[in-house]
Amino acid sequence: MDGDGQQPLRVDAPDMSMEQRQVVPNALLGTMIFVGTEIMFFAGMISAFLISKASTPGGIWPPPGQPRLPVEATALNTVALLLSGVAMVVAYHQFKKSPSKATAPFLVSAVLGVFFVVFQGFEWVGLLDHGLTMSSGPFGAFFFLIVGTHALHAVIGLGILAKVFVLLRQGALNLGGMQALTLYWIFVVLLWPILYWQVYL
Amino acid sequence: MSATAHDDHHHGPTFAEIWLLQSTDHKMIGKQYMFIGMFMGLIGAYFAYAFRMQLAFPGVNVPGFGTVSPLEYNALVTNHGTIMIFWVAMPVLIAAFGNFLIPLMIGCDDMVFPRLNRLSVQIFLASAIVLIASFFVHNGGFGGAWTAYPPLSAKAEYNLTPLGSTLWLLAVVLEFAAFLIGGINFITTAMNARAPGMKALDVPMVVWMICIASLLFMASVGPLVAGAVMLLFDQVLGTGFFDPDKGGGPVLWQHLFWFFGHPEVYVVLLPACGITAEIITVFSRKKLFAYKTILYTVIGTGVLSFFVWAHHQFISGIDPRMANVFTITTVLISIPIAEMMFLFIATLYGGSIRFTTPMLWALSFIAEFLIGGVTGIFLGSSGADIYFHDTYFVLAHFHYTFFPIAIIGTFAALTFWFPKMFGRMMNDTLGKIHFWGTIIPFNFIFIPLFYLGAAGQHRRIYNFNHYPQLATPDLQALRVLATVSLLVMLSFQAVFIYNMLYSMFRGKKAPNNPWNANTLEWSCPSPPPHGNFGDELPNCYRGPYEYSVPGRDEDFWPQNLPN
Amino acid sequence: MNAARVLLVAFLASPTTAWACAVCGGFSDDEKGAYIGTTALLSFLPLGLIFGGVYYVYRASQTHVTPMLERTESSDRSPQ
Question: Domain range for residue A112?
């Protein structure tokens, strides 16, 4: 991320009253605002989904004649993504103690994230084979819109993970950057159960 | 920042930095935003000229445009609205002045994310190019009104502009991406890079307002982006999110659109109010009356702005219970805004007022915006809105809010900060001629439109001669009056363009602090060099509005002076 | 207190089925509920986010102070 050039924490700074200070690191603050926007973005899509669901003729959702979604398999996948989030939180706490200790949980998080995305890719291929596409009706359209947007965020998140991992290995990662990454990844992880609940169940 | 880091920056900006948007300097980016915005403003004004001519003289061969066909008329009104809001009001008021002013006013050398800032202006230019390109594709630009209600916007067989509507949507989404990046930058910079000693209540009001506006923008834009993606899929992939035939709902789009659409009004309003606050304090030589109360009214406006949006859907068939709630909140939001206007007037009371050009613009902002606000109360009441909805009354109302915001606010800010931006003074006489030549015709354009709207004249009609009740000579005379006033107003803009270009290159050299103002941007050279304040970044010792303090020789007390 | 009562009575007595346009009102109860619910969700969520964020920043400013000796990330900016 651009501009996370904060200085290391200084506790012995002289005359703090006239010192410029970063209350929250730049990278974290920027990511906080961005994640807020993203939450509203998904809230908009979920609102649209709820309204469309409520306006189905006869109130039957999912509409008859559409393929069922793989609820159980996705539950397993949900657990994988949640564990990835836990690993990221562990990595963050390890990073605060010593950056070198963060490598292992960081890798675990990334591997679980990749697992989630690949698993979902196979799921999509199966659903497409069964005739569920974006133009097959509101059910398919909303499924691919919402789940696809989340998958896009997960893929982008994995790309950032890879980039930050390189920084971590080089020892060039600062606390603000790590905080920003953790926040974004937690957003991607915690959003998923909500989407699972709304779209699959 | 040390001085050495800047040693290789003492040359002027290079060709690539100016024309290829390669600069990371916030002042350059602000100017780039401003000039792109002004260029788009000229296009928007040209569109207004073409369709106003068609309305006043139906079927006339408009000089410089030709005959306006119905399809072209729709594209003109749609893109006039889109351009003026998304490519003029937002880039100039928030992005241009936000970029230029925030680092200077809080006393730092640049934005905290300079490269993201550069990316923002590059995306913004791309969005403008995409929008302009949409005018030249088959059947021309999108003509489904700036609100883009489906099914008109979703289906090419209805809007007849298959490519134009898709490009329009892409341009809008790109533009939002640009402002998203910009807004993150503004808030983070104002939060983390303030000069030592500058506490939250020492921050100039315009910085507060731009930051709160950015926050509102970011909290409200998400659902519209979601809706825009859905509309794009409807257009391109044949999904049916907004198509009743395929199980979607057209009202759903309004739901998502207006959730953003109304806070957007406050997003552009607040920076204009902040600019007015800065100018009236400087030219009244008085402390801003009730700084904290103004801040609270801004926060109150921001909170309420999320609860007024459904008033755009009073006749879309929303639940009447919801209409009741939104009527109350809509009328409520006039309270903080009115309070802010009263506090500005209280700032003027007893001050030693100097009627410079920026001060005239700031005062006219208060006066004209009040007319827009007062007429809004009729529209916010769901009963009256049933009649007024989509008439020229609505149109005149929101032009009385958006014109003061986007045009008066911009001219106020530009004439005020011109010496700092370009290092030269503008001609005050020409500025005043331009002011009166703009303000008087403006009222002659839109007051007739209030009457026309109350007489039942509907918006977005190509030729009123097709409606016998509206084709009467008295109504037609009002239409002609509005169009002629528009022509007068547009011709006076030549005075401004001449004044601006002449002053940029030949104007009188500006001193550092030509208006004897307090805020930090006036303590650095005009125009500020790369890095703004040179080797020593300023400290901040007091609030921004210490004018006419008893016991001081001078009537101003800059923030950066220890005593 | 009196004003609150007047408001309450006014709200209860206000029409619930007065549709503004002739073709409106075709919504089912489910759909009306969904519109009201998502209106509330969309309106309150951003305020929750903003105030949550502001509270977090406020708390952070109270607990740990991170003084900066250098200004913004100037070293990050490569010479052009």
Answer: 24-63+70-200
From chain A, which residues contact C within 8 Å (Cβ)? Answer: 2-7, 9-10, 13, 16, 19-26, 29, 32-33, 36, 39-40, 43-44, 47, 50-51, 53-55, 59
Instruction: List the structure tokens of B371.
Output: 């007319």
Q: Which two tokens stand for residue A163?
A: 């980039």
Of the candidates B8, B109, B537, the beta carbon closest to that of C79 is on: B8
Closest to B379 measured CA to CA, from B273, B454, B455: B454
Is residue B110 predicted with pLDDT exceeding 60?
Answer: yes
pLDDT at A86: 96
Q: What is the pLDDT of residues B170-184, one digit of tens each?
A: 999 999 999 999 999
Distance CA B184, CA A29 (A): 8
Residue B553 pLDDT > 70: yes
- pTM value is 0.91
List domains and CATH numbers for chain B.
25-523 (1.20.210.10)
The Cα-based distances of C1 to B66, B328, B435, C7 in angstroms read 64, 18, 50, 10
pLDDT by residue (tens digit) across A42-56? Answer: 999 999 999 988 888
B386 touches chain C (CB under 8 A): yes
Across-strand partners of B547? B556
For Cα atoms A75, A79, A80, give the angle at the middle one, nearest 5 degrees: 115
pLDDT reported for residue C23: 57
CATH of the domain at A195: 1.20.120.80
Distance (Å) from the C-alpha of residue B230 to the closest C-alpha of chain C? 17
CA distance B275 to chain A (A): 25
Please report residues of B whose CB lies closer than 8 A to that of C16. Answer: 320-321
Provide the pLDDT confidence category of residue B250 given band limits of 50, 70 and 90.
confident
Helix residue ranges, H only, chain A? 26-54, 71-97, 103-129, 138-170, 175-195
Residues paired with residue B66 on neighbouring β-strands, in sequence order: B62
DSSP secondary structure string for all residues of B31-67? HHHHHHHHHHHHHHHHHHHHHHHHHHSTT-EETTTEE
Q: For residue B345, which amino acid is it?
A: I
Reported as a pLDDT band with limits 50, 70 and 90, residue B314 is confident
A169 contact partners, CB below 8 Å, separation of at least 6: A103
Cross-chain CB nearest to C21 (options B110, B215, B315): B315
- Residue A47 within any structural domain of the chain: yes
Name every chain A residue with its beta carbon within 8 A of the beta carbon of B215.
33
Token representation of residue A131: 């005739």
Q: Report the gap between the CA of A118 and the closest CA in chain C (Å).
A: 32
Phi–psi pair at B242, nearest 5 degrees: -115, 15
Phi/psi of residue B68, each to 5°?
Answer: -95, 120
Task: Tell whether B304 is within 8 A of chain C (Cβ).
Answer: no
Q: What is the mean pLDDT of residues A107-124?
A: 94
pLDDT value for B536? 82
Residue A19 covered by a domain: no
Cβ distance of A10 and C67 shorter than 8 Å: yes
ipTM of the complex: 0.92
Please give the Cα distance from B556 to B400 (Å, whole number). Answer: 34
- CA separation for the pair C8, C12 (Å, rounded): 6
By C-alpha distance, the chain A residue nearest C78 is: A3
Integer Cα distance of B247 and A60 in angstroms: 12
Domain count, chain A: 1
Shortest alpha-carbon distance between residue C78 and chain B (Å): 10
Amino acid at the residue B464: F
- Interface mutation target, options A4, A6, A22, A23, chain C, most CBs of C under 10 Å: A23
Q: What is the pLDDT of residue B6?
A: 44
Distance between terminal CA atoms of chain C?
66
DSSP 8-state class, residue B381? S
